[in-house]
Fold these 2 entries.
Entry 1:
Amino acid sequence: MIFTTPLFWVFFGVVLLIYQFIYPNHTLRNVFLLIFSVFFYYKSVGYFFVLLILTAIIDYTMGWQIYQTQTKWKKKFFIVLSLCLNLGLLSYFKYAYFFASILNETFGWHLQPIDYLAVWSNAWTGGKLDIFKIIAPAGISFYTFQSISYSVDIYRGHLKPVKSFWDFAFFVSFFPQLVAGPIVRAVDFVPQIDKPYKVSAEEFNHAIYLIIGGLVKKILVSDYLAANFVDRVFDSPETYTGFENLMAVYGYTIQIYCDFSGYTDMAIGVALLLGFRLTINFLSPYSAVNITDFWRRWHISLSTWLRDYLYISLGGNRKGKIRQYLNLFITMLLGGLWHGANLKFIIWGGLHGLALAFHKLWMDITGSKNKTSTGLGRFIAQFITFHFVAFCWMFFRARDPDQGAWGVDWSKDVLMVWRMLNRIAYHFEPQLIIQQIIAYRFIFLIMVTAYLIHWLQRHTKETFEGWFGTVPDFVKAAIIVCIIMALYQVKTDTQPFIYFQF
């Protein structure tokens, strides 16, 4: 049950209908949303929903143990225990094959990971789930990081534990951002739980605008480009010219942005309709003038989480310049591994880590930390940053179609990037460019339009949103109906959001 399916909006319509009668009662409202959130997750991942409940129990208990314990070593024991339990569950479901393959190749063993949750489910329900196929449930990385931040904030003295388990479970499971972010912190969300419902007319219009915009990003841009161009080229780069391969790289660059930011836009909009404010997660990242600026704009909830809970814990910039550069690299390397146990993600994270460290070194050498480029210099900086990011996305996207999602020969993914670069460098075939532009005219029109809108100044976008908020409601309704009808004219088969796999 995802945001782009009619089923979700039918269910959400029912939720809003019931919500109108219960929202004044905080307890009833929160319990109702908790029940629906767990049901939503169950419909998304099946029996894996028990992991979400287990995570809530672990960190609610650890949070109180950390807070009530006065002895320093006991506080450390409980925070370490919380980290071990959370990261242990995450590692088992996301990295079991990765670690097993390393051990098997190193020692000649024949380890076979087993899905013990499937074993338990088969025993209790009489099912026939494959116990030798471990599937990482959607959203496990997001709610694990969210729950870890709660325990760490209590340990650091930044937060007091939530009194009610049901309130904490509601925080962990809140359905709009549960499976693909943004990563919400307890310090931002928990205070809203007991606040009375209040959504202004401006906020209501903002929520509707975000939801419609998110649907356009996902269906018209991301899904359409993936199904009709990007996936075909990435799956078989040798059958396309270098120009087509380059356009596919540009296509995936805007595809992943529209896919991920489209989801978070809808998540923020849906949450706002229910009276809860989530933090912004994207800020025109392809307008960045350097790689540091990019990570201040891209997946902001993850980049700030990595900064506050990993980079600072490693020492940040407090232990000298060399250590700072190393900490940046390690943080991004682990950030890449967070996306999945695959060589391509490690390379992707490593490249970004090296770029961040190099940029920090460059600023230290040149003393350009507080300098801002303008005019041609700014354009060149944006051009270089954009193409570095697009190059890194090639590793992120690459997957050999001949091996499964959990194929262990991960070098094939990396070789696919080399094959694409080879086509771009040696088989560009410029004499066919005009012909190919004509053949792919609708694809390229969507790509160019998406990029142009993305690069618009922020005040221009806000002006258009302001206009949308001022038009009469019947005009808004007509616009929404027209957009939805147009979207379902171009809609391909339902495609999951890219970040569901993380």
Entry 2:
Amino acid sequence: MDDKLPTPPAWADRLLKWVCPPELLEELLGDLHEQFADQVIAVGEQKARQDYLLEVIKFVRPYFIRQRAVQLLTQKTTLPDSLTTANNISNRSIHSQHKASDYPRPLLVSPDMLRNYLKIAFRTLWKSKGYAAINVVGLSVAFCICSFLFLTAYLQLTFDQFHQDSDRIFQAYLFSNDPQKVSRTGTLPLPLMPALKADYPEIEAATRLVTGRKSLVEVKGRYFDKLVSMTDPDFLKIFSFPLIKGNRANALNNLSSIVLSESMARAAFGTEDPIGKPVKVGSDNTVKQYIVSGVIRDAPYNSSIRYDALVRVENAPSYQTEKENWSAFFHPVFVKLPARVDPTTLEERLKPFTQKYFPGNLEELVKKGAKPDQRGDIMAVRLQKLTNVHFDRDISNGRGAPIAVVYVLLGIAFFILLIACINFINLNIARSFTRAREVGVRKSLGALKNQLFVQIGGEATLICLIGFLVGLLLTYLLFPQFNATFDSRLSFDYLLQPGFVALMLSVFILVALVAGGYPAWQMTKFNAVEVLKGKISMKRPGILRNSLIVTQFAMSCLLACCTIIAAQQVDYLRTRPLGFQKEQVISIPVGNQVNGRQVLQRLRNKLATDPAVLAVTGTGVNLGQGKDRVSSRSTIGFTYKGKKIATDWLLVDYDYVKTLNIRMLSGRDFNRAYAADSVDRVVVTESLAKQLGETNPVGTYFRDDEDTTGAKSQIIGVVADFHLYSVADEKNPIMMHVSHSEPIHYIFVRVSESSLAVAMDKLKSVWNEVAPQAEFMGSFLDENVDAWYQNEEMLSRLFSLASGIAILLSCLGLFAIALMAIEQRTKEIGIRKVMGASIPSLIVVLSQDFVKLVIIALAISTPIAWLGMQSWLTNYTEHVAISVWVFVLVGLGAVLIALATISIHSVKAALMNPVKSLRSE
């Protein structure tokens, strides 16, 4: 059959469409085109085109002119007799007498038609069960994954937005344009908030928030480990956590008042009213009694502020000594501005504030060669919007989630949804050619375009609806598994949030309109005459289908590349030397219900004769993240010989270096034989020794240059640098000290390799003897350290899941497209076999077009993946180098998977008996 068939003049068709009433257009066009086809055979194409034009011109009469159609159709009108003699067309299509009522416009959807559409839709889907199953599976998996990813991203993006006037709440932070590294810190000195409020009366409210590790709380002889946050009365004016009981205006006015969270009040008092009841907080000599003045609703999951109870900040143990100290940075400050105050304007007015209260810091920066930034600041107090604090890792001290991760989640969700939609569109378009005769018959029987669009689009919407419902069911069933796999805390309640419901409904409507509407619109454009004569062909699929296949494979390859690179980075972080030996060490959080120093000594005594125990020590800071989920940090700053020194201040006990196998470079470790070791002796890391500038730091005495009366500390040893915190962060200098007064919060026990299998159970048994009132929460240190890379691990797993599903959906779509494409080429394959083509050559012919598309997809996705992952890796001080072999392996894998998918049909088609495919010829 000739691919280029004669067609009537296009402008003549457009003229007829302009002058002809819609009720008659399709029937007239069909008859005219049929007559044109007969005339081409009888008199030739040129003469047939002339006759066609004359026939169209005959219809250019006042009755048909659209501008007068409404007026003429409301009157009795008799068609000219000459029209009844205009060839066979007019005799078959138009009677000599018509009224306006003879041309009623059919309803788009009536109840009977809707019922008929549903019957036809279910019958069609049942007849094409394979096609329907592929679409439903693809859409349901996509909707399920998107539900989880959208929900995770939605909760992250709504952090702290539940507060009333959240757009007027800000966290203050200190900016320093240090030549070595620009710093932004959200921990500020205690006197800053009162000075800020006094110097700038336009500030509506301001509060400090001092949080640390959990405190011991006693209620009626029962003990609880709870997070008691210390704050100011303005806390309840700034944040809109609902106060269930008590007076919001004065709940924190008294220094002896305590506001309990709803869950803590329930745990401590049950159903009893807690207002006015006493509560003791603290241990040993720091116990203080408070009176309950209110009960506040628990902070929701998407709150960056956590608490179990609230008391006044003046109750902090170090408050009296630090309340005028502008050098101690250890708590955030939040302010609320009136609606009329612009935060940018206030930041400009805060410049004199910095010069007034931080002159020493400014002077030190100038000595280092610091220059003003674009805003003219070397050092400044600035404001960060509360709703952005969660994504600002500098201001939140690394607790926030990088906004890039949220965007990645959304990107992955849209990628998977787009791949499923592409499959749906491709399959619908490919399948439309198998339904072309059905569309042609319906058009010849009088069906209008809008009716066909509703019917065909309704079938697609039905498939979308089934996929959407199955996807939601899968989401419900897989909820616990998702939370466990990705260490998420999602709840079913979040699914019913109005914003999330609106988001998912919008996604469903968008998919139904785009994925279902476009193929339906294309099918309604088929010409009835050409369809019924078999002139619609799929031999040349065009740009659209190829573009969609390239797009989905490009996204699949992109995700696959990102998966491999992210996994390499996580593995790199895990295997990097930490400066200490994390294997064979068990970390035990002490908690608040026992004295850590006493428990440590008892444990040492119990394990002294056990050959499986190699060393026992204590510390104030855990390595990694243990079962108590607590992470704390203590830093100090001082001036030594005119140089500003900043270092981590680490409390340790004897044998700390031995227990962790930290390499000693010079000097000695802490020793019980030297009483002064627990008073004014320190062990420092190599980087801190270099900052001090001493050629032989061991034996050096030092103190703050500004402190002329305080006692000096002596360096007794230098150890190799080690990571006290994540490898993803820079290694800070560390200064270790021993103290008999400061509390021990963690105990480390090194055991022999041969006893690892039974060590945990044995330690638990011993713990129950030395600290029966405290829960045993021991964990292996290497597991704790792995928790440092929780975000990276989660991202790697998400990439793995997404790339696997994307490749699966892409192959599923390619499988169906290849099947339909090969079915269209059955006769071609038969002819090729008759002409002597071999089976391998046939497989190559049938596969090469699709393989080309996969190669194009690789060419598009490779540079995007390289640029994106290179940008992501720059967030780490130490990272892997992206290897070209990653892209080579992904490319080979993609081609092989595509070939395997296509070959299933190619081999089957190549082996087919050509007699069967050609017998109809």
